[in-house]
Amino acid sequence: MEKILVTTDQSVNSKAAIRFAIKLASQRKAQLTILHVYHLLKPFKWTDHAFAAYTTEFRKKTTDELSSFIAGIYHDIDEREINYELVLVSNIDVVDGITDYASRNSCSYICISTRGAGTIAKIFGTHTAKLISCSTVPVICIPSAYHLKELKHILYASDMTDYENELKEVVDFARPIGASVEMVHIAYPNEFAFDKELAEATLQKKNSYKISLLNLQRDVNNNLLEDIDHAVKISKPSLLVLFTHQSRPMLEKLFFPSNATEYSFYGKVPLLTFKKKDGK
Question: Could you list the residue ranges forming a coiled coil in this record (predicted)?
Fold first, then answer.
């Protein structure tokens, strides 16, 4: 069975991701895990026994609080309650805790809320940005102000370097929920443009799924993310899909973050990011 992992720190901002994950798990008939990563420091004078007892009490109290927190979310949404697993993981680094659990438990997707960040936080990375940059499991970023909707239409923004293989992953996500798929390529001046009807017929045949094509031109007055945002306004998707490079040197990542990472800071629709294949 497919496994969907959603993270929470019990904040108001994390509610959006939990609501989305509940809806997605229900639509895909997937197993839902709600994960909380924590870290406790052992006081120097405490014995191992005293710290173990404190940890046990902390985990029990936190589990009770999380259960009430999730019950409150269910109370606010019109969704049938589904079975879920509540997991607490101890790790000094939140992102390491999330990625390690997701990898060891063969999770299909990681859901996390995002609320944007200032300049300094963008450079050094939020939890969301770090997940996008390092997770081998696809990450779904949910804006904290997002209002729950049906997943009906998916927009895949392609750089055309590996679109045939990438489309297979997009369709694999869309097919179980019956969502439509639209591929957008934002072409540079003088770049070859696809014949829309021919390309759509070819894509549909190769994927056994209806795929529409949106051809747009780069606006030299905009950066690429602004052009992607323009495509979102035209397409009005329920979800945007981007593939992100993770093999670049660290300094390049710090000063030239991926489009997916940058978009996660201000996008208004859920963003699904996949890791690009090496060499693409």
Answer: none
